[in-house]
């Protein structure tokens, strides 16, 4: 492009269309905005009077890096990248609730969503503040790029994390890193173009900024500082997650549901036979609101050591402890089928005595109804009734779980727990801090989404086809019974699941986790022994 040179002492000069004109003699004014066919201002359509030295005024809108096709092309490319990233962001948002084909994440699914959100934010900032490059922006964008590259290396290098993230998570973090580096390059090119155009059209590089430009630089810098903090937290949480991935499970993981995800199953003790040569029942534990390793495993292991039972097995529902998350939506019946498959793969055989607590009773009852002849007893410890599923299916609870999941990659409670409180890998995987885990939150969200529909239908059907001859024990929390009349009525109704009720015990001082009191543990071990030995 050819620059417009001013004239001195009335000398003739060329206008934007190549025509000759003289300033001041014929009264013609320099072209204003909208002249020259209404096109945007450039160096051929100056908006301010020319200076005596032949250069444009630095404040003339015609002095713009957009005069360079390279800068314009980068902006168009940025817009295209933003559209692609936003469409990917929408797809990942939907996949949290309904897994599209080939897009199931065996992890939480919140990390890839976080990286894509970061990518969209990066591109938006780059486009909004495209023509006001600054040194702070360049440095902060470079820092973000560096941390995203570290995240990419961690995800690719740690086998368990790589497996959980899958191709969706890997693609998301690589895309985030590439876009961050692209923004660094774009910022440098625009700064170069701005300098080149200023020197060409005004004769010097303009170091001053208008108030509007300073406000833009300040706003962009503040936003980038926030994004830098976010990406640092993401990296710290990912490092902690990699550390947790090194904790080996006590049992073994089994691929189920067409090799879509893994279920962790562990067994303790040896197979024994009674005097008649029949196989002694194996106790099969179903955890409640928390992983079974942090709840019932303690008192059941004590029963095993005391000789009350000879063998027990336990598993982690999808998303809990060492098990992967299942595709969404995922109901209790689907979990029951996954458990059946894992038991078959492990070579475990019936008969079973099913022991469950809390919401785990829903899963045990469905499993019992689908394996009627293989079940030697059902043991319900203050379990949830199907008519109370609405308590975990409420939309408000679902929204809170979703919100917790979205911010979980920032480690807002996991990082302080590890740094300040000294939480261990065991705490975060299956212990007191397991609820902070993104997989755990995703599992609870999946549970919430179908509790009032698919799961409710499955457990109602299970009640109708449940064998009425199966021995049944119900132990209820005295604290919960006194606190909630509806809970008491539903506990009584659970005693009618079969016509072979062995006992219904209400442990007065026991909380929902009945085994946390000495009396509760005593009653639980006694009733468990009765079911396993077939005595009343």
Automatic annotation (TrEMBL):
Biased composition (Basic and acidic residues): 16-46
Record Pfam families: DUF2417
Highest taxon, organism lineage: Eukaryota
Full protein name: Mitochondrial integral membrane protein
Region named Disordered: 1-58
Transmembrane segments: 76-98, 110-132, 139-161, 167-185, 214-240
Keyword entries, A-Z: Membrane, Transmembrane, Transmembrane helix
Protein species of origin: Heterodermia speciosa
